[in-house]
Amino acid sequence: MQDKVIVADALSSPDALSRFLRTVEPFIYQTAYYLTGKKADAEDITQESLWKVCRSLGQYQGQGSLRGWIHRVVVNTFREQLRKKRLTVVELDEGLQSSESSVEQQVEMKLTEERLHTAIAALPANYREVIVLRHIHEMSYQEIGEVLELTDAQVKTRLFRGREKLKSLFYGGDQA
Question: RNA polymerase sigma factor 70 region 4 type domain spans which residues (predicted)?
Fold first, then answer.
């Protein structure tokens, strides 16, 4: 019910809509970045997603969370761009490096991070989506199902297969 109030407030005036869009923009960008791995592609998807959210916010019915609805917009925009341009994931978010780590540990962490990102980039988009939504955005199976329009069983199956493929790519270097 709170989501409907937020939407009603956002639709009450152009200034309120602008505030709402500024509030959700970082969330949209983060999702787009984790899906694409490229800053430029994430910015493009963010702009397109913001436009779509702005245009269709009045159509939000309150079924499922507003967060899930926005995720769905971003994922669908990503899929459209993927079909148009064949986007690829290139680099993993830098971070998680402890300032107390030795140089060797930092180098090893960076190499592992790059290998992981390469493996994620090699995943088919349908596996990459569920992996990102579950492990980066910490969404529940139900939320992922709402975003991707899948049943819980389909989400679990994709996650299982995606994790298996990711393990194979990460440890075995299998690109097929």
Answer: 114-166
Residues whose CB is less than 8 angstroms from the CB of residue 21 and which lie 6 or more positions away in sequence, other chains included: 50, 53, 54
Query: CA-CA distance, 92 to 108, in Å (whole number)?
Result: 15
> Tokens in use for 100?
């107390």
**DSSP state at residue 87:** -
* Cβ density class 1-19: b for 16+ within 10 Å, e for less: eebeebbeebeeeeeebee
- What's residue 91's pLDDT? 39
9-42: per-residue pLDDT in tens?
888 888 998 999 999 999 999 888 888 878 888 8
Closest to 71 in 3D by CA, of 31, 38, 42: 31
Instruction: Find, among 130, 107, 105, the residue nearest to 120 by Cα.
Output: 130
